[in-house]
Design goal:
18 helices, mainly alpha, two-stranded antiparallel sheet
């Protein structure tokens, strides 16, 4: 029986919104509210899935991106109402405070404010921008929607990374703080593997984080696969296996990343293998075909990593086989003894004691002591 995937958004869909668009908007607000610019993607997915029905009923017109949704006042209202109902957990406290502090902003102003933090960032730079926006409630804040990223790009660290990207032929990354922040080794990795902007963006669109993409490209290089093709396989797997279920998509992303982090990790491989096997056996035709492609790519990654220890492994196996062979020979000998009896012990020859001849000063053979001599033959009896 095919594993049903949630319906995709598009023509004929019941909702004008997809869950991934709502999750994208929720993630952006969560990132803006966090001191370190990081988010709990699983939490964002849960919130997005829960508020999707209400947002779909409230908002009119088709909204195709999280950025558009952020500009809708109704989105913030529904999100705030949902958070007020789920309790006062620590993981949503900062998000609720951020929404309260910016409740009076216009939709365009709020969207511009949040857009600055969509690629993360530290608290100091974020506070500087927040203070600037607090003084600009007239809507002109949209002109500085990328102020934080621009500040990074103009900083000494940002300029150094831009120059590094240019030196290595990765010109498409010079205006991408999200990539530059991954560091020089990531820049060099993307350049060596001819990794393209569209491949990076397609993985980001389905939910992969920057460092997860970096690990994926590392595995492509290690296993001799085309990095852009491997990115496409992973992107398609998340879309086909997860459908429009943001939580299921995130589970697949986490599964892939756990394996890509350490392909030798037996638990990570078994989890991925078991999940792919289920798709191959119970999924739709599209899911089965994609599971086959994903398995081939993942097995190449695993075999490449295991190949680094292949010589040691072969030596260990050979040693184990030799020990087993010796044990089998010992067992066979023991069994033969039990069946036919142990062979008689050989009689040792009589020892010869060598002494020195005092007269000729040379060695002379002497008969052994009586105790060591063989028993005398009985004398013939004459009649």
């Amino acid at each position: 029986m095919a594993i049903p995937a949630p319906p995709r958004s598009g023509v004929g869909a019941q909702s004008v919104l997809s869950v991934e668009v709502v999750t994208e908007a929720v993630s952006a607000v969560m990132r803006a509210s966090d001191r370190d610019g990081v988010i709990d993607q699983a939490l964002a997915s849960r919130i997005g899935a829960r508020i999707l029905p209400e947002i779909s009923r409230t908002l009119n017109g088709r909204i195709s991106s999280g950025s558009e949704l952020l500009g809708q006042q109704g989105f913030r209202t529904i999100l705030s109402q949902h958070l007020s109902l789920v309790g006062q957990e620590d993981d949503t406290r900062a998000l609720r405070k951020f929404l309260r502090d910016n409740a009076n902003r216009t939709g365009a102003d709020f969207a511009a404010l949040v857009a600055q933090y969509r690629r993360g960032g530290g608290w100091n730079g974020r506070m500087e921008t927040l203070d600037a926006h607090a003084d600009r409630e007239d809507g002109a804040a949209a002109d500085s929607s990328h102020r934080f990223d621009d500040t990074f790009l103009r900083s000494p660290a940002g300029r150094e990374l831009q120059a590094h990207a240019l030196r290595h032929g990765l010109g498409w990354a010079v205006d991408r703080p999200d990539i530059l922040r991954l560091g020089k080794d990531a820049i060099e990795l993307f350049a060596r593997t001819n990794f393209r902007r569209e491949s990076f963006d397609s993985l980001r669109e389905v939910g992969f984080e920057g460092r997860q993409i970096k690990r994926l490209v590392q595995r492509a290089e290690e296993s001799g696969q085309d990095a852009n093709e491997l990115a496409r396989v992973h992107r398609d797997s998340v879309r086909i296996f997860g459908g429009n279920d943001a939580q299921e998509r995130q589970r697949w992303i986490n599964r892939f990343d756990a394996f890509n982090t350490n392909p030798r990790d037996e638990a990570a491989w078994q989890d991925l293998d078991r999940s792919l096997r289920r798709m191959e056996q119970e999924g739709s035709q599209e899911q089965r075909d994609q599971a086959h492609r994903q398995r081939e790519a993942s097995e190449r990654i695993r075999n490449a990593r295991l190949g680094a220890n292949l010589t040691t492994t072969q030596a260990t196996v050979a040693a184990d086989q030799a020990v087993t062979a010796v044990s089998q020979l010992d067992a066979a000998a023991t069994e033969a003894d039990n069946l036919f009896g142990a062979p008689p012990a050989a009689t040792p020859p009589a020892p010869v004691i060598v002494t020195r001849d005092v007269t000729n000063q040379g060695p002379a053979a002497q008969p052994p002591p009586a105790a060591l001599q063989p028993p005398a033959q009985p004398a013939s009896v004459r009649p």
